[in-house]
Amino acid sequence: MALPRQNTPLDQLLVEAQRALDTVFGNPPAERAYPADGTPEVELEAGERRHAAGLMRINHVGEVCAQGLYFGQASVARDPGTRRHLLEAAQEETDHLAWCAERLRELDSRPSLFNPLWYAGSYALGTLAGLRGDGWNLGFVVETERQVEAHLDEHLQTLPAADLRSRRILTVMKADEARHANHAEQAGARILPPPIPSAMALASKLMKTIAYRL
Q1: At what angle do helices 134-158 and 46-76 cross, to 10 degrees?
Q2: CA gap 65, 191 in Å, rounded
Q3: Is residue 174 part of a domain?
């Protein structure tokens, strides 16, 4: 009986390149139902529509970054269980990516022009985190998800009151992010030292400022 073929470095490079292209330029389908299905679309004023689109563009960028971070971490994870955890979380983030893209289309808007840059930076950060070891790898997952959870809370408070469709999407995303963080903690995540969470928060603030408009 023939042994399974082992991936070569070139195979792995092609896999990662395809993931990057799918995330940044493709339209990967969601595995789960669109949370806004069944929620009525309400006509928003022009300013409200622009604001809702800006927030959803930020969230779409967040999912692009999550894909880059998780795929980068998974590419160097030492433990198969950690790698599986990262790839499972990445699949749910693909759902979020698809949902945010769909909502942007409904709002007659578009994703960020800088998505290739956001993905590349996040992939590099994920790879560096993964090289420190699986405990640090999972620690980055926890910190990332907690920060995303906080900004989703902020968006839920500042969305136009009538935009129930965006609100439904963000509510499901927030629950998923909290679960990802909890699972990573249970799997042995290490607490990141103080400078790192602050630097991540500063980078996130810069990203949100740019992505809201571009």
Answers
A1: 170
A2: 21
A3: yes
The number of distinct structural domains making up the chain is 1
98 pLDDT above the threshold of 90: yes
Tell me how crowded residue 212 is: count the other CB atoms within 10 A of its CB: 16
Residue pair 75/12 in contact (Cβ under 8 Å)? The answer is yes
55-97 tens-digit pLDDT = 999 999 998 988 888 888 888 888 888 888 788 878 888 899 9
Question: Is a pLDDT exceeding 70 seen at residue 134?
Answer: yes
CB 98, CB 28: distance < 8 Å: yes
pLDDT of residue 51 exceeding 90, the answer is: yes
Cα–Cα dist 153/148, whole Å: 9
- The position carrying tokens 């679960």 is 179
The answer as to whether 120 is a domain residue is yes
Contact in structure between 92 and 28 (CB atoms under 8 Å): no
Question: Which domain does 202 fall in, by range?
Answer: 54-213
Give the chain's length: 214
144: CATH: 1.20.1260.10
